[in-house]
């Protein structure tokens, strides 16, 4: 299966590396956020996902806006079967989500609908939750609101 992957932080990088290591699927492109200034020197710092993509010689896309027509047209050229999104940090257009042959899937780090949106792990910890988990869902234009296909509970 031809996979396009979109993600930014360490949790996304870990999942991307797992997909690469299994060698069951072809990662045709990786989408991540633009490098951000970090530290006292405010030097540009690549995302953990970018580092994994570069280490594995994968095609990397870092659009200023994933909603831009230019980016969406370039993405369509990869003719992927599925777009897998893990903590990318941007809301994606319906046009982009529907481009892959089988659509787009999100892995969200909470038991949705609880902690929809950003920082679900941190919010679960701050609220003292004893359990959380992962939710796999088909993506739609709403924020973490598509139909859920699988939930995994973790303690």
Please explain how this structure is put together.
The chain is α/β, with parallel strands linked by helices and 155 residues long. It has a single domain, classed as Formyl transferase, N-terminal domain (Rossmann fold). The protein is 26% helix and 28% strand. The protein has five helices and nine strands, in the order βαβββαβαβαβαββ. It has helices spanning 10-22, 48-55, 69-76, 94-97, 120-126, and strands at 2-7, 26-31, 36-38, 43-45, 60-61, 82-86, 104-108, 132-138, 148-154. The strands form two sheets. Strands 5-2-1-6-7-8-9 form a seven-stranded mixed sheet. A two-stranded antiparallel sheet has the order 3-4. The longest helix is centred in the N-terminal third of the chain and has 13 residues, at 10-22. The mean pLDDT is 89. Its EC number is 2.1.2.9. This is methionyl-tRNA formyltransferase. It holds the Pfam family Formyl_trans_N.
Oligomer: single chain
Rg of Cα set:
15 Å
Please report the total strand number as a whole number. Answer: 9
CATH topology-level name: Rossmann fold
CATH superfamily: Formyl transferase, N-terminal domain
How many structural domains are formed by the residues?
1
Strand order of the largest sheet: 5-2-1-6-7-8-9
Q: Which regions are unreliable across 5 or more consecutive residues at pLDDT < 50?
A: none
Helix content: 25-40%
Given helix and strand content, the structural type is: alpha/beta
Overall mean pLDDT stands at 89
How far do the termini sit from each other? 32 Å
Biggest sheet overview: 7 strands, mixed
Protein name: methionyl-tRNA formyltransferase
InterPro entries: Formyl_transf_N (IPR002376), Formyl_transf_N_sf (IPR036477), Met-tRNA-FMT_N (IPR041711)
EC number: 2.1.2.9
Organism: uncultured marine bacterium MedDCM-OCT-S04-C385
